[in-house]
Amino acid sequence: MITDKKSPYRLVTDEQLAELRAREDDIFKDRTRKSKETFEKAQKNLLNGVPMPWMGDWGTEYPIFLEKAQGNRCTDIDGNIYIDFCLGDTGAMFGHSPEATVKKITEQAARGITTMMPTPDALEIGRELEKRFGLPTWQVAMTATEANRYTIRNARALTGRPKIMVMQECYHGSLDESLPHINEKGELALRTDYDSNPGLPKDQLTRVVEFNDLDAAERELAHEDVAAVLLEPVMTNCGMVLPAEGYLEGLRKLCDKYGSYMIIDETHTLSNGYGGYTRAHSLKPDFVTLGKSIAGGIPVAVYGFTEEITKKINETYGRGGVSDPMGIGGTLSANQFVIAAMKETLSKVATEEAFEKMFRGQERLSDGLEAVLEKYHIPWSLTRSGARCELQFMPVLPKNGTEAKNNFDWQLMYYTHVYLHNRGMLITPFHNMMLISPVTSDEDIDKLIRGWEDCLKELAEVSRK
């Protein structure tokens, strides 16, 4: 949702930014005439002209309608080609339609799509995920939201506790428990009036603390009513926030001390390596959730848990009996089509070699962007994490969600995005996050650096007028 919130480090005035944005909007409209026509026709049968709300939230007057996506290139219906650093907001982290995955799903479609019966491929997925994340037992869901929801249900059932603790300004899908936040008065509240569901008392289900604040975490966990702490090891949805040294290890100790489970949501932070941030930093979660990219962008998610939890589930509900009382699963979950896609993606696409190439690309991009900031004396900073980086409208990296959001500047951000769109580059909407895939070339990265340099150079020049 675009607001009038501004960063203190915007550089330009409202009037200067509006003038620049008007120029870029004219260029955008001239390049995307068919997208505009299609968007207008779509109003008749699609809410706000799109089949899913986020597709209309790119900060432009209307969305770009897609013709095709392959590798790290997207082509719109006007014939414009874009180098893609958004990659489906991580869903296509390893590139659009990777060859091995496409070949496998083409074969599998002819062999059956869904039957509500397991296939031998599922065994290989379980073994592969244990090797990567160190957790022995795995289950498959349709989305990461579902995977988070199911881990929460298990945690509540096994602890007998009602509450979940999350981080201020977190995002874990459409979970009711992750919608509350601490408002400016220090009270627990919903983020907006739209985050309302009269059937669920969210303020009684959730405890919210700032990321990187162990004292706050202990204060809330000491009530001993928290079934689980749900967090990303790096916050990635509010302007990236890195964990302070020792924070995740300290949180692990607090969970043990007060009898709460620790759920690590690796949906975005899988970009930190073969076994995500968990493996890269030797974390010891009770549950791990994953989604989006593990089947080449086909909707699927997984959640894994410890041997201790496995035994407790079986002792509490009996083998196979956990789904009925807690509504875990779904007719289409773990169908043979997505299982085949996931097996092929994990074994042939999301390889250690692929991650190494992605990391090198991120370092090239980040080094280049930091050089641009220094060259034009721009008081912004850059967060690096695995295969992704994020430009922050502040001189030092944020320590928590509140600091990150206080320096959000939607109008400035979406001006820079449309500037890049008009020059054939896409980055993640909602924030300035950029992701490197294994098929992203050095030339692609250098073009993005030049695009940002041209944009920031002009902002710096305009600010001096």
What are the defining features of this structure?
16 strands; 465 residues; 15% strand; 41% helix; seven-stranded mixed sheet
Please characterize this protein's 3D structure.
The protein is 41% helix and 15% strand. With 465 residues, it is α/β, with parallel strands linked by helices. Strands 4-12-11-10-9-5-8 form a seven-stranded mixed sheet, with helices on both faces. Strand 2 and strand 3 form a beta hairpin. The radius of gyration is 22 Å and the shape is globular. The two termini are 31 Å apart. About 2% of the residues have low confidence.
How far apart are the termini? 31 Å
Strand-pairing-aware structural class: alpha/beta
Nearest-integer average pLDDT: 93
Q: Percentage of helical residues?
A: 40-55%
Query: Strands of the biggest beta sheet: in what spatial order?
Result: 4-12-11-10-9-5-8
* Count of beta strands: 16
Radius of gyration: 22 Å
The total of helices stands at: 16
Overall body shape: globular
The major beta sheet can be summarized as: 7 strands, mixed
Q: Which regions have little confidence, pLDDT < 50, spanning 5+ residues?
A: 194-201
Give the percentage of residues in beta strands: 5-15%
Question: What is this structure's SSE topology?
Answer:
Elements: H1 14-31, H2 33-42, E1 66-70, E2 73-76, E3 81-84, H3 99-111, H4 121-133, E4 137-141, H5 144-159, E5 163-167, E6 180-182, E7 188-190, H6 202-205, E8 206-209, H7 214-221, E9 226-231, H8 247-258, E10 261-265, H9 276-280, E11 287-291, E12 301-305, H10 307-317, H11 323-326, H12 336-348, H13 352-375, E13 381-385, E14 388-392, H14 401-406, H15 410-421, E15 425-426, E16 433-435, H16 442-463
Parallel strand pairs: 3-15, 5-8, 5-9, 9-10, 10-11
Antiparallel strand pairs: 1-2, 2-3, 4-12, 6-7, 11-12, 13-14, 14-16
Helix pairs in contact: 1-15, 3-12, 4-12, 7-8, 13-16
